[in-house]
Design brief:
alpha+beta, Guanylate cyclase domain-containing protein, about 190 residues, Alpha-Beta Plaits, Nucleotide_cyclase
Length: about 190
Amino acid sequence: MSSNLYVRPLEPRHLHCIALDVSRFAALDVAGQAHVRKEMFGIIEGVAADLSIDLRPEAHSDRGDGLMLVTDCGIEMLVTDFPRRLGDAVRRYNETVCPEVRVQLRQALDAGYVHLDDRGYAGVPVNRAARLLDAPDFKAKMREYGAEFAVIISTELYEEIQEYRLLDERKLEKVQVDVKETHTMARMWIP
């Protein structure tokens, strides 16, 4: 018996990965979690629909207190309109609810080759986006600034798009990411 197993070639596609997560979700009681989930998904779905971002079941996965979205929409929308509108929607929501169910939403953005199977997408940018969300420095900066919403972008994607001047360099801040096997720098901003 051969020690080399045959692995079928995959069909990778270059797509953008958006990871979203509600901070301190587990600290809420079950009723609070249900309320925040409903409202968070409503906010995300509303902003995505306004921008014609596809939320088909195979394009996103529910993470309980967050969402992983894989899309082919334009990067300019994902670093400008989407975070601006999402941040505005989170702030509007927080103005209307009691402090116990206010939301602090984190967004991570990456891009690269991913593969779709019958359970969803897999690939380096999906994993990296999840690690960016959990970066202690990113979370600490959000607490320090009292931010209700912030975005972190991988160095790889940042370096690919920086010459297009889509991001305001004056608003970007470097943050260290050391989560599991991911050790890198990233950029964050508060839209």
